[in-house]
Amino acid sequence: MSAVTIAGALVLLAGLAIGISAALSAFGSGILADFGMHVGLAVVFLILGFVGLAMMRRWRGWRIWSGALAWGSIAMTILGLFASPEIAGATSMTTRIAVIACAVGILLAKRLEPSKPQ
């Protein structure tokens, strides 16, 4: 099993965890209470699920999708450091380091995967 398959499975599991937590919070607090948050979590769930499956199955364009996910995660995490104190205080430094470490792991796995000769 290659590193890309493992990374794709982890991305897919992260997407499933976000989807399950979004569903549980939607049913617990009422779907109309925080509709925008639930829609945002659903979009994140779909994106992570698609990228995870694309990486695992090596669909066409999986390198672009995984690179965009990894670099986007790094950029949003770093830009979040300069956000307002209310937004920046919502996530701990441990969470930010974990997100960046996962993104770097995806980039390394992508780099180690041999490309097919064209």
Question: Can you describe this structure?
Answer:
The structure is a single chain. It contains five helices and no strands. The two termini are 23 Å apart. 79% of the residues lie in helices and 0% in strands. α1 (3-29) runs antiparallel to α2 and α2 (35-57) crosses α3 (62-80). The protein has one domain (3-112). By secondary structure, it is mainly alpha-helical. The protein is globular, with a radius of gyration of 16 Å.
Question: What is the CA-atom radius of gyration, in angstroms?
Answer: 16 Å
| Tally of DSSP helical segments | 5
- How far apart the termini lie comes to 23 Å
Please state the overall shape, judged from the principal axes of the Cα atoms.
globular
> Strand percentage, roughly?
under 5%
SSE topology string: HHHHH
Structural class, from secondary structure content? mainly alpha
Number of strands: 0
The helix content is over 70%
Largest sheet: none
Mean model confidence by pLDDT: 84
Q: How many distinct folded domains?
A: 1
Provide the descriptors you would attach to this structure in a database record.
118 residues, mainly alpha, globular
Task: Give the secondary structure arrangement, pairings included.
Blueprint: H1 3-29, H2 35-57, H3 62-80, H4 85-88, H5 93-112
